[in-house]
Amino acid sequence: MSAAIVGAAETDSVAIQPDKSALQLHAEAAFNALADCGLTIADVDGVLCAGQSPVSVVEYLGITPTYIDGTSVGGCSFMIHVRHAAAAIKAGLCSVALITHGESGRSRVGMGGWGSSKQMPGAQFEEPYGVAGPPTRFTIPILRHMHEYGTTHEQLASVAVATRRWAEKNPRAMMRDPITIDDVLNSRMIAYPIHLLECCLVTDGGGALVVVSAERAKDFPKKPVYVLGTGESSEHSMISQMHDFTESRAFKVSGKLAFDEAKIAHKDIDHAMFYDAFAHTPMFALEALGFVGKGESGPFFEAMRTAPGGDFPLNTNGGGLSYTHTGMYGMFAIQESVRQLRGEAAAQLPNIRTSIAHGVGGMFHAAGTLILTNDERA
Amino acid sequence: MPKRPIPESTPETEEFWAGARRGELRIQRCNACGKAYFFPRPFCPACSSKNVAWFTASGRGKLYSYVINYRPAYGFQDYVPYVIAVVQLDEGPRMMTNIIGVDPTPENLPIDLPVEVTWEKQDDTITLPIFRPIGAAS
Questions:
Q1: Which among A16, A289, A291, A310 could bridge A255 via Cys, Cβ 3.0 to 4.6 Å?
Q2: Are residue A74 and residue A188 in the same domain, yes or no?
Q3: Quick check: ipTM above 0.90?
Q4: Are A118 and B6 a contacting pair at CB < 8 A?
């Protein structure tokens, strides 16, 4: 255990804010996280960010760091940044690492281009077929999982229902009205088998983290959140090239790395944040990370074990499905893990010692996993 | 026919697109490990051997998975809902495509449905492989 998160904060709002650019959201989150740990921007010597290049972010912040990392592989980039920050600090490349996320995902202010090229593999072999963003590509594996394991529409819908029950407890969550399985299955069809209420929100916002060495962690105002285990991987850039549509290889590699490093058992995980871009994403995570066997996630969710009162509290902020989803949601999953471990969450769990935050990048393209603890003896 | 975004070939994919213009599904096979693969690369993604060769695939395969899309991409507004599918070729590799020649309903599209390639010419350089159930009218 070499590093700890000592500063963590989101932007003031995580809803719809057309009055702020993406870079502005990076900076707002950065300053909030620095204030959270009593540091100033002058103390920062490492900058890690996604979506925007580090050169844009450091220019905007007015600093000249000794370590930069622009790993930008989608919503799990921030899990990977924590991993890289811990390694960089251990190697002496920086001492105060600032990880920033800011995205005008809904209002599209200052977002830059998509960098589209007619010659990239995805442009040649997927885009001609009428794909229209993640709802048409990320979702293609679902029917294969249903076919091979008997996963049902009701089981998929139950993910959205359980997650909404957490959002009901969170005043910052965008969608807080209770929903039922029928509500989900009767919501507008987006791309069969996925309905509107099984798709994440699209919002504007950001978040930031400050990471230092574990030795220094107790010098800061808030309870440190130690980085116990980390993992990362990537598998493909085109969903059609995913090796097995019923499991993510990237999830499996990343999850195993994190558990091997943390040296704890699955039963010792008190709280989980699994990136929920769509209802099936946390199902795939539950299986790939080894919490259940292959194909067993459907009945697990249907039994409401992840909902308030269940034995596997998951996505306790309301998730990408009901809390916020700027586009690269992983930062918000980590923020909720930190809040739970500090005892600051809106739907606070009692006696929590460990949390796992697992992110997906793109459409099963990449993965990042963090196992965090508030126990310095861990 | 939907107005599709027309791609541009790159050096390692030109043979695929040249084959498509002739109505041939050209993919590659590794002479070292024997595996067929797609998308085009000048080496085998399974074993890294550069001893690879182009061949014409049968054009037959199975429906591996899909969505029926109700939120159209630009150019597809008049074709909703439409099927965005991944097909597993009989030779092994998978590719994205559309399924035509059948009403887009789950009942008509069981997983592993046998399908075959047909061709949709876009312009003088790009012709796209599209799949239909075997036996369906074109």
A1: A289
A2: no
A3: yes
A4: yes
Here the CATH number for the domain that contains residue A354 is 3.40.47.10
Residues A214, A266, single domain; the answer is: no
Q: Looking at the complex, report in whole angstroms how far the Cα of residue B25 sits from the nearest Cα belonging to chain A.
A: 13
Q: Which two three-digit tokens encode residue A118?
A: 């007619």
CB contact under 8 Å between B86 and A245, yes or no, is yes
> Does domain B14-133 sit in CATH 3.40.50.720?
no
For chain B, the structural domain boundaries read: 14-133
Q: Are residues A23 and A151 in the same domain?
A: no
Is B46 touching A (CB cutoff 8 A)? no
Is residue B138 scored above 60 in pLDDT? no
Q: Can you list the residues of chain A whose pLDDT is less than 70?
A: 113-116
Say which of B65, B70, B112 has its CB closest to residue A189: B70
Task: Report the gap between the CA of A246 and the closest CA in chain B (Å).
Answer: 10
Q: What is the DSSP string of A148-214?
A: HH---HHHHHHHHHHHHHHHTT-TT-S--S---HHHHHHSPEEEETEEGGGB----EEEEEEEEEEG
Contacts of A238 in chain B (CB under 8 A): 39, 96
